[in-house]
Amino acid sequence: MGERIPFRTTVDADLLRKLKVKALENNVDVNDILEELAKLYLEGAIKNIEITKRSKK
């Protein structure tokens, strides 16, 4: 993988809380989880998910 660069986005507050708990349980950072999931998605390893655009509040 290449160098990491800053990336800012918004996510559901409850989802982020759960991600933080999982990250702590696994001794990793949230961005490590998100990065791994993004790789799996781009490689086609994550299929059959419906992604819908969320409107800003």
Describe the SSE topology.
Layout: H1 13-25, H2 30-42
Can you walk me through this structure?
The structure is a single chain. The protein is an all-alpha fold and 57 residues long. It has a domain at 13-42. The chain has helices at 13-25, 30-42. The radius of gyration is 13 Å and the shape is globular. The mean pLDDT is 91.
Key descriptive features of the protein:
57 residues; mainly alpha; 2 helices; 0% strand
Write a short abstract of this structure.
With 57 residues, this protein is mostly helical.
User: Which structural class is indicated by helix and strand composition?
Assistant: mainly alpha
If helices are DSSP runs of H or I spanning 4 or more residues, what is the number of helices?
Answer: 2
- Rough outline: globular
Q: What is the share of helical residues? A: 40-55%
Uncertain runs: none
Largest sheet properties? none
Distance between the termini: 34 Å
Compressed to H and E, one letter per element, the order equals: HH
Radius of gyration: 13 Å
> Which percent band covers the strand fraction?
under 5%
Q: How many DSSP-defined strands?
A: 0
Mean pLDDT: 91
